[in-house]
Specification:
CATH class of the largest domain: Alpha Beta
Structural class: alpha/beta
Number of helices: 9
Strand order of the largest sheet: 8-7-6-9-12-10-13
Number of strands: 14
Largest sheet: 7 strands, mixed
Mean pLDDT: 87
CATH architecture of the largest domain: Alpha-Beta Complex
Order of helices and strands: EEHEEEEHEHEHEHEEHEHHEEH
């Protein structure tokens, strides 16, 4: 299980001026209404539950410090900031009782991989399994180098690019052969914020599947153009037309699964290859009457590299979603 050393604030570059905290407690008689924060300000809350209340009201999760002490007072909670960055960095990564692995599928992600591995380690004690589809840019070779330097990093090499679904399935099957209790999926391009990982794991204590959602209160997208927003909204509306609105963000790919749910999903029969894979697994969770929870996140468009979403994935979605509905109806 994870044995990597934590990253201390002194190891992450020059620090900006000290952070000024606005303490928020659930002891207040009046509902708390968040205001505008300066760049050197952040909210300090006593627990994850209070953090979620703030984030649902529109507060950026990067500016919420969760106290690791008994109570919120005038103490320094030990967070810092990477110079020039918005997000807070805890003095030590969050540790949970359950064993965790993050599955990272990669194809031509050499420019992002090492940085993401480093940042994940600042927020969460977890193992990481990289699933590389024989990337021509050398991502697989870099993954091997990282695995030799870090005991918590593992690599699966696949002979060719077959789509997002098969890559995740390979990672899930690898994880289920080992005693992990929480299996997380996320993109390798920083679209999913690493500082939200502890939130996903914490919510999984009361849910079988936690989806980082763009379309619940507090969620959203950043740096997307109008066309990208339109396609995403239409895609989710199309899925909801057939499968219902029990889930708001069917296509979201930032997730935490409880082991037992994946074991009950008959993963060997999953048919989706592209991004519609996310819909198929969410639909299977619904069919199994699993408890699905959506956690608001801010999805940011990639800065380095090219999006893998293309017409084949869109066409697959148009065809496969109705099939899922009729297959589900046949088994009722």
């Amino acid at each position: 299980m994870p044995s990597h050393p934590s990253t201390t604030p002194s190891e992450i570059g020059p620090q900006p001026p000290s952070i000024h905290y606005r303490s928020v407690s659930d002891d207040n008689d009046q509902p708390f209404s968040p205001g505008q924060l300066r760049i050197d300000e952040a909210y300090l809350v006593p627990d994850f539950e209070q953090a979620e209340q703030l984030i649902a009201q529109g507060v950026n999760s990067a500016r919420v410090a969760i106290s690791k002490k008994a109570s919120v007072g005038d103490h320094d909670p030990g967070y810092s900031q990477v110079a020039g960055k918005l997000e807070l960095v805890p003095a030590t990564p969050f540790t949970f009782d359950e064993s965790i692995v993050v599955v990272l599928p990669t194809y031509n992600e050499r420019a992002n991989l090492e940085a993401l591995i480093t940042v994940i380690g600042r927020y969460l004690v977890t193992d990481i399994v990289i699933v590389d589809d024989n990337s021509p840019d050398g991502t697989g070779e870099l993954a091997d180098q990282l695995s030799t330097r870090h005991n918590h990093v593992h690599v699966i090499h696949r002979p060719r690019k077959e789509g997002l679904g098969p890559a995740y399935l390979a990672g899930f099957q690898w994880a289920l052969q080992r005693p992990y209790q929480r299996i997380i999926e996320m993109d390798c391009d920083f679209s999913h914020a690493p500082w939200d990982l502890p939130r996903l794991v914490h919510r999984s204590y009361t849910s079988d599947l936690v989806i980082g959602s763009r379309y619940v209160p507090g969620g959203g997208t950043e740096n997307w153009n109008a066309r990208r927003r339109f396609v995403s909204r239409c895609g989710n509306a199309y899925v909801s037309f057939f499968l219902g609105s029990i889930i708001q963000d069917w296509t979201g790919g930032f997730r935490c699964y409880r082991r037992e749910l994946l074991e009950n999903m008959s993963l060997s029969t999953v048919q989706a290859k592209g991004y519609i894979f996310q819909v198929e697994l969410a639909w299977r969770a619904v069919q199994l009457r699993a408890k699905v929870s959506e956690l608001p996140i801010r999805f940011s468009d990639r800065v380095i590299g090219q999006s893998k979403l293309g017409w084949p994935s869109l066409i697959e979605g148009l065809i496969e979603v109705p099939k899922m509905f009729f297959r589900g109806s046949a088994h009722r």
